[in-house]
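Structure in, sequence out. Go:
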């Protein structure tokens, strides 16, 4: 009796496992995430923070998500060709800025030497602010469970991009306020002669 019950249970588990694998194979392996934020700061301030990997520690969300992460900024550290790499509890990766213009920065990310992500940051000046949009797309390459992993990547990136853009907003706005205060201080000190 127990053996028959175990055989039936084994068949159900096998069928369930087969269904999970088939659904995972049918799910899309591609993922896309897009987030934006309105920042009350100059475009040049924002671009300096995102196009110079030496500035990323001031706003990047990854150290909040993974406190063990360690970044290495390679030469060049800013502009087209800028390159940084990292190691953390979720693996390792590297990022390169591939193009930079007045209104856009494009980049590529390679995770664990197999997973490629492409992204862009766009800067859209408005009347008193800038709309910064980050768009990321990639494809999961994990054998048999790529569809599930694409859903996980999309979930993680949605939350992390939102955190990062909010951090960028705070740092950029504070930098602009500090620049204005410094310029007022220098004008006041030179006019007292």
């Amino acid at each position: 009796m127990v053996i028959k019950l175990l055989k039936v249970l084994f068949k159900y588990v096998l069928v369930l496992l087969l269904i999970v694998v088939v659904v995972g194979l049918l799910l899309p392996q591609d993922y896309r995430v897009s987030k934006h934020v309105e920042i009350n700061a100059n475009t040049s301030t924002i671009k300096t923070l995102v196009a110079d990997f030496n500035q990323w520690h001031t706003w990047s969300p990854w150290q909040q998500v993974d406190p063990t992460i360690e970044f290495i900024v390679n030469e060049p550290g800013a502009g087209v060709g800028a390159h940084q790499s990292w190691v953390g509890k979720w693996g390792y990766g590297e990022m390169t800025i591939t193009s930079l213009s007045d209104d856009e920065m494009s980049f590529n990310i390679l995770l664990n030497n197999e997973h490629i992500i492409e992204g862009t940051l766009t800067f859209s000046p408005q009347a008193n602010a800038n709309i910064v949009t980050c768009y990321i797309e990639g494809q999961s390459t994990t054998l048999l469970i790529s569809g599930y992993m694409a859903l996980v990547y999309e979930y993680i990136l949605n939350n992390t991009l939102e955190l990062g853009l909010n951090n960028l907003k705070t740092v950029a706005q504070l930098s602009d306020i500090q620049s204005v205060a410094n310029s007022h201080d220098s004008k006041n000190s030179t006019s007292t002669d």
